[in-house]
Amino acid sequence: MADVLDVAWATEWVRRSAAVVGEHRMELIDLDRAIGDGDHGENLDRGFKAVLVKLDNPDTPKPDSVGDVLKLVATTLMSTVGGAAGPLYGTAYLRAAKVADGPTVDAAGVAALLDAAVGGIVARGKAEVGDKTMVDAWTPAAAAALAVADGGGTATQALRAAATAARTGAESTDPLVARKGRASYLGERAVGHRDPGAESSALLLAVAADVAEAAGAGAAE
Hints:
- Strands 1-2 form a two-stranded antiparallel ribbon.
- Helix 2 (25-35) runs antiparallel to helix 3 (40-56), helix 5 runs antiparallel to helix 6 (107-125) and helix 7 runs antiparallel to helix 8.
- It has a single domain (5-220), classed as Serine Threonine Protein Phosphatase 5, Tetratricopeptide repeat, CATH 1.25.40.
- Helices cover 69% and strands 2% of the residues.
- The protein has helices at residues 7-23, 25-35, 40-56, 66-80, 85-99, 107-125, 135-150, 155-171, 196-220; strands spanning 5-6, 104-105.
- The protein is built from nine helices and two strands, in the order βαααααβαααα.
- By secondary structure, the chain is mostly helical.
- It comes from Occultella aeris.
- One of its GO terms (cellular component) is cytosol.
């Protein structure tokens, strides 16, 4: 288990995020068609593809910190992703970037960047836990990471706990009546459908943990 996460981890997280969003594009589209306008998967896929283009552009300054990578994601998503996803995810990554301003992030840093991301999402979307939004995935994720950090765990362990909590949080949106966003107009008809933003959040955090575990395993060999 990696005690700290570095720029290489953040960069690989971005690459794997683009891959997982592409793999689950239609699933996210279908979820959003059920309770939204159907563009979540398409928009997020386009956004992360644009992030990869920026990341691989030789004119893009080489990141010196985890925050530099997260800021690149934030600014690119904000400029390329339409609908609610661009501003919400962009603000989340931007707030996280501000607290991850060093070359490495430990368990406390993971908890801090996730908490900052939650703050950004809440500030932008005005939602809270139980509203059937991505907040239902990110809030328990941040709390789980903090619990690991407070218990002396590693950065990788904090991320895995966050990913597990985010998955549970995303699934918890299935029976909820939406109180925010386009889904809120459906009332009881939204019950039984998972929030697409919560699902994509769980996917992205799972990838973050996968990359950290792979990096730790490689270092141990």
